[in-house]
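All the exercises in this workshop are built on plain-text protein records. A record pairs a protein's sequence with a compact description of its fold. Read left to right, the backbone structure tokens trace the chain's path through space. Once this layout is familiar, the rest of the handout is easier to follow. Here is such a record, shown just as it appears in the course material:
>
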Amino acid sequence: MAGRQQVGLVGLAVMGENLALNIASKGFSLAVFNRTGTKTDAFLQGRAAGKKIVGAHTPQELCNAVETPRRILLMVKSGAPVDEVIAQLRPHLQQGDLLIDGGNSFFQDTERRAADLAVSGLLYIGTGVSGGEEGALKGPCIMPGGSPEAYALVKNVLEKIAAQVDGPCCTYIGPRGAGHYVKMVHNGIEYGIMQCIAETYDILRTVLRLKAAEMSVTFGKWNAAELGGYLVEITAACLAKMDPDTGKPLVDLILDKAGQKGTGKWTSQNALDLGVAVPTIDMAVEGRILSAFKDERVAASKILKGPKPPRLPANRTQFIRACRDALYLAVISCYAQGMALMREASKEYGYGLDPAEIARIWKGGCIIRSKLLDPIAAAYKRKPQLPNLLVDRKFASVIAARARAARKVICEALKAGVPVLGLASALGYIDSYRTARLPQNLTQAQRDCFGAHTYGRTDRDGIFHTQWTE
């Protein structure tokens, strides 16, 4: 319709603003709305000045400003704010209009909203958007889920604003809440990798006594080689940053309390619901929780004494190389756990996820982009029904080559009293998955002993119960 804009957007925080500018830069006209009108005005007079962006000051005005069928992107906080915005827009929408939730919504909330809006003939897409502020502006990774009909309406916009690596880093993920589910697992993998990087930094700092500048150089070298990826890249940058007021490395002055927005916790909770092991993601969540108890940890440090400072390793270069191998192994383990979870979720929820394509779109724009994603995508192309990334022949050989170094590093960390929740769980996951006979035969005997839960046997078929004690 003449005079109307091609896309609408609600929410002008940093991510919303940057996505709006990204959309406009790709040639699409845009109408924007923020619940605080002064924010809209400031954006129009500032960063959006001279661009194909118009403002609206009410939900009705926004809907009237967008051509039909309307395509309106919601960039608001997850939870109740999304429901509130939908309720405000809904009276002004008509059958066939499309709402796109680009926030970090819980996938089951997306399922509920899609079903509710479908009653009125409204289309809904829940899409994960990864890449932070810079990605939103220059090209994020986009993970949209919903009906094929809904995706067809917005495909041209999303694929143009996405990062471009071997094609757009955006693909149709699957029905209903599939997009937000994959983004949730993406964030879980992100938690795991970040925890393992932090522990590696702690080992280099405590065992080798490296300074921040030295570690920055080390991580920079790793990033230039096989460990290359966004999280390793920014680790080198963070360690190099100096505080202008004190002249000290800024990272040394930051309080050791990590925040979280819930997506890592959701990944762990859903994995428990589905009966899938994701121990490194679990430990990353636990690590952040433990970090929040700063006062208790300071008090405990005066009572619970750890080991004396360790001796420096005899061969510093060799130990740094072992740390690199341990981290590389842990990163592989994090991806393997996330991909295994998505495999089971795809079956449970009927999402039809394509792991090779998901790995491909993660190669650009997103926080967990890394050089590992090419071989991960190749592994699933070779065998789409691969039960676990660890048993792909190429990854199995990498694991075999790095496991000894990982064991050495973890042992040195334990001797030094350095907590390695993530690195140890990553190796433990691999060791558990490769073990043909685990000790849970004893666990099952105990369960049968105290609760008559029965057990199976290795030498005959059937279900058995024993009177274990007199």
About this structure: The mean pLDDT is 96. The first strand starts at residue 7 and ends at 10. The beta strands are 7-10, 30-33, 53-56, 71-74, 98-101, 123-130, 141-146.
